């Protein structure tokens, strides 16, 4: 069997990272002897021509795509293109959205053959074996498919009890250099599962309420590997990394014992941190902890089953500050019970708690309690246009507050950030002195924009190169001139950014063909 896995487009504004779920699945399939190709349409521009090229060169038997709610429509359109170009391929989808919306997705999209619900490694592998053997898929747990004109859901598959049976993600199948060029971090997980019951999240339903852990040595082995890949930061993206204090401290101590020096971040709940834990995290390189506080109103926190208090939030932030770890806090506006007064209190609470904070707007995703019991929570669902479910605009509203008002508040907040950045740019152009922190921020924005243009315009791929025999310096100088014309940056900025990308091992000279070209490494 040959399997093509697709990572559908996702806005750069959402700071995408290397597609962890896809490459974790790919690693499991490879270990089972299945040939896998990953098409990552975040850092590889998508086109119908690209579909034809991949089908011709790779000839997959199965084409599968992941998706979250905000890009599920795009994923479906890509799968439709693959099916139209080759009716023989089996099309499959997985991920949180389709796991909880299988009836609508399969019922409304005849080009999609089946859905893998929940954890995909074992289900997808069993599906491929059945297809290869020509046997029915009826006995493959965790699948949804059509049968006699209706959608049938096979029984759910039990969660993988021991995560240590899973191989490292197949990061060799994607272009890490392009993510590194954009300045994005690289992700890893140390566990699956979340014991909490927040009504706006599908995490516990997707991966279970019981937390399943990778062994400490296995975790630090992978952390050590990632530390050599020249990413600016490692993100530990467990739903709750700090769920087990002693294990978390053991991981930190092992990082220190091995002498690994690399900055990292994680997600935490405010009721799971302590002085001892945070000091261990700081000593091992943790720079930032992200807390989802969600509201500055205790009644709303109780209603959405967050099960924290504002006092604990304040204590957690104080502990982080004392340990030298930056606390980043996030909030959701438009939750059940939201009123103009609760929004005012949340914004006041956020400003006073920590300088690093941000807002999202409630998006009631399929599978969440707030969606399934919207009327009970006093919520109105405004649209099922999944493209709008990016948590940056209202797709639902509380009966106590209009969605227009929520949108206005968030847009005003985000607009203030944009105006601040623009003012810094003006100050710099006037030759005024700005702080080192602001200078670094502007430099990061410029580097991101430069790299994004290289990727989206496929500048490296279109560069014709110079005849072999030209020196590296000559090739890079010629390429810099080509880039200047293609993306409109001044030559000084181009040369500086190309030097940055070379130092990060993102680009290099490729002499494999008849010409010497600059290529992604």
Strand and helix map with partners:
Blueprint: E1 2-7, H1 20-31, E2 35-40, H2 48-58, E3 62-65, H3 72-85, E4 90-93, H4 96-100, H5 102-108, E5 114-116, H6 121-133, E6 143-147, E7 150-153, H7 176-182, E8 186-188, E9 191-192, H8 203-207, E10 212-213, H9 216-226, E11 234-236, H10 245-257, E12 264-268, H11 275-283, E13 286-294, H12 298-303, H13 310-323, E14 326-333, H14 340-353, E15 356-361, H15 369-372, E16 379-381, E17 396-398, H16 403-429, H17 436-456, H18 459-462, E18 466-467, H19 472-487, H20 491-503, E19 507-510, E20 515-520
Parallel strand pairs: 1-2, 1-3, 3-4, 4-5, 8-11, 11-12, 12-13, 13-14, 14-15
Antiparallel strand pairs: 5-6, 6-7, 9-10, 16-17, 18-20, 19-20
Helix pairs in contact: 1-6, 9-10, 10-11, 11-13, 19-20
Percent strand equals 15-25%
Mean pLDDT: 95
Structural class based on helices, strands and sheet pairing: alpha/beta
- Bin the helical content: 40-55%
Q: Largest sheet at a glance?
A: 7 strands, mixed
CATH topology of the largest domain: TIM Barrel
CATH architecture of the largest domain: Alpha-Beta Barrel
Distance between the termini: 28 Å
CATH class of the largest domain, named Alpha Beta
Shape: globular
């Amino acid at each position: 069997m040959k399997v093509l896995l697709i990572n559908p487009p996702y806005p750069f504004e959402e700071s995408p990272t290397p597609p962890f779920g896809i490459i974790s699945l790919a690693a499991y399939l490879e270990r089972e002897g299945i040939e896998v190709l990953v098409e990552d349409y975040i850092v590889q521009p998508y086109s119908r021509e690209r579909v034809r090229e991949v089908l011709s060169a790779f000839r997959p038997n199965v084409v599968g795509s992941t998706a979250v709610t905000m890009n599920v429509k795009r994923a479906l359109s890509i799968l439709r293109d693959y099916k139209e170009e080759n009716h023989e391929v089996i099309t499959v989808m997985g991920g949180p959205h389709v796991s909880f919306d299988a009836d609508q997705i399969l019922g409304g999209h005849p080009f999609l053959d089946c859905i893998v619900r929940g954890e995909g490694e074992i289900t997808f592998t069993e599906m491929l074996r059945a297809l290869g053997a020509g046997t029915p898929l009826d006995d493959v747990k965790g699948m949804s498919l059509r049968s006699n004109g209706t959608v049938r859901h096979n029984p759910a598959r039990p969660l993988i009890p021991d995560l240590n049976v899973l191989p490292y993600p197949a990061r060799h199948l994607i272009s890490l250099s392009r993510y590194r060029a954009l300045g994005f971090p690289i992700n890893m997980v140390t566990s699956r599962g979340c014991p909490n019951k927040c009504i706006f999240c599908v995490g516990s339903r997707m991966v279970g309420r019981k937390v399943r852990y990778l062994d400490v040595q296995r975790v630090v082995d992978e952390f050590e590997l990632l530390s050599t890949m020249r990413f600016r930061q490692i993100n530990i993206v467990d739903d709750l990394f700090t769920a087990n204090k002693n294990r978390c401290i053991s991981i930190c101590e092992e990082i220190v014992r091995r002498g690994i020096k690399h900055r990292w971040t994680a997600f935490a709940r405010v009721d799971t941190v302590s002085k001892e834990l945070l000091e261990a995290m700081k000593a091992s390189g943790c720079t930032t902890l992200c807390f989802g506080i969600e509201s500055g109103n205790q009644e709303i926190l109780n209603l959405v089953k967050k099960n924290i208090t504002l006092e604990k939030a304040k204590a957690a932030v104080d502990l982080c500050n004392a340990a030298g770890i930056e606390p980043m806090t996030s909030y959701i506006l438009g939750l059940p019970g939201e009123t103009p007064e609760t929004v005012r209190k949340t914004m006041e609470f956020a400003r006073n708690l920590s300088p690093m904070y941000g807002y999202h707007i409630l998006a009631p995703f399929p599978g969440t309690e707030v969606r399934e019991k919207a009327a009970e929570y006093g919520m109105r669902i405004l649209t099922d246009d999944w493209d709008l479910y990016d948590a940056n605009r209202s797709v639902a509203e509380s009966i106590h507050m209009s969605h227009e008002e929520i949108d206005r508040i968030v847009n005003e907040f985000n607009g203030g950030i944009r105006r601040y950045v623009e003012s810094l740019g003006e100050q710099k152009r006037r030759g005024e002195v700005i702080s080192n922190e602001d200078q670094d921020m502007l430099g990061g924005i410029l580097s991101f924009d430069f790299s994004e243009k290289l990727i989206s315009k496929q500048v490296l791929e279109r560069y014709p190169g110079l005849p072999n025999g030209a020196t590296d310096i000559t090739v890079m100088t010629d390429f810099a001139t080509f880039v200047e014309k293609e993306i409109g940056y001044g030559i000084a900025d181009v040369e500086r950014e190309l030097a940055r990308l070379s130092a990060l091992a993102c680009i290099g000279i490729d002499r494999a063909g008849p010409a010497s070209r600059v290529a992604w490494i």
